[in-house]
């Protein structure tokens, strides 16, 4: 049974077109939304209309955020469990992939690890944006100011995701090329 599991993990992923299509799809989808808010809503609220205190696009962004931000709240126990499970899975795959030389485990580490880091960055962004939404709802700061600041933070995060996608794709392509040169027959 152990040999069957290891044989499944050792399938040819770096030369599979399905792996590259999956990689392209997940990074394309990762850049389309920030905290669950579509990019066009963020872009619309980034530049508030001149002289409008209650810009409809600013209100729309804050509405989206008030609906999406509760999904990012996590108590410390849930965070600890999530961190423990993620660390176990990633370290197990890293040992199988880079310690024992299993191609599929390497590909999974290179696919999952950037998204784990992206999840942490997005959780941090949610913690930074939540006080802005709460302050706008309590009328402590103007709606257009809160929306503009939230949109600025979210646009910067989206730019970082775009940059990360380019870097990660280049690193995976480099690792795949090294793998194919050192393992020309797949083993």
Please outline the helices and strands.
Layout: H1 2-9, H2 17-30, E1 33-34, E2 37-38, H3 39-46, H4 56-68, H5 76-99, H6 103-137, H7 143-182
Antiparallel strand pairs: 1-2
Helix pairs in contact: 2-7, 3-4, 3-7, 4-7, 5-6, 6-7
Structure description:
The structure is a single chain. By secondary structure, this protein is mainly alpha-helical. It has a domain at 15-46 and 53-74 and 111-182. 76% of the residues lie in helices and 2% in strands. It contains 7 helices and 2 strands. It has helices at 2-9, 17-30, 39-46, 56-68, 76-99, 103-137, 143-182, and strands spanning 33-34, 37-38. It has a two-stranded antiparallel sheet. α5 (76-99) packs antiparallel against α6 (103-137) and α6 (103-137) runs antiparallel to α7. The longest helix has 40 residues, at 143-182. The protein is elongated and about 65 Å long. It starts with a helix and ends in a 5-residue tail after the last helix. The model has no long low-confidence stretch (mean pLDDT 84).
Give me some keywords for this one.
187 residues; elongated; 2% strand; two-stranded antiparallel ribbon; 7 helices; mainly alpha
What would the average pLDDT be, to the nearest integer?
A: 84
Task: Kindly estimate the percentage of residues that lie in beta strands according to DSSP.
Answer: under 5%
Order of helices and strands: HHEEHHHHH
What is the terminal separation in angstroms?
20 Å
Strands, total number: 2
């Amino acid at each position: 049974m152990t040999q069957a599991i290891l044989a499944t993990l050792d399938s040819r992923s770096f030369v599979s077109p399905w792996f590259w299509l999956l990689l392209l799809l997940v990074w394309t989808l990762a850049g389309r939304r920030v905290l669950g808010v579509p990019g066009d809503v963020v872009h619309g609220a980034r530049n508030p209309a001149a002289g409008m205190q209650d810009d409809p696009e600013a209100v729309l962004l804050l509405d989206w955020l008030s609906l999406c931000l509760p999904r990012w709240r996590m108590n410390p126990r849930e965070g600890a469990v999530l961190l423990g499970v993620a660390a176990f899975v990633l370290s197990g795959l890293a040992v199988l992939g880079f310690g024992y030389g299993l191609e599929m485990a390497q590909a999974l580490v290179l696919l999952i690890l950037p998204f784990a880091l992206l999840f942490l960055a997005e959780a941090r962004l949610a913690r930074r944006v939540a006080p802005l939404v709460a302050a706008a709802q309590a009328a402590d700061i103007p709606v257009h100011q809160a929306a503009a600041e939230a949109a600025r933070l979210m646009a910067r995060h989206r730019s970082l995701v775009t940059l990360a996608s380019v870097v990660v794709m280049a690193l995976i392509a480099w690792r795949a090329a090294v793998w194919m040169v050192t393992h020309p027959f797949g083993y």
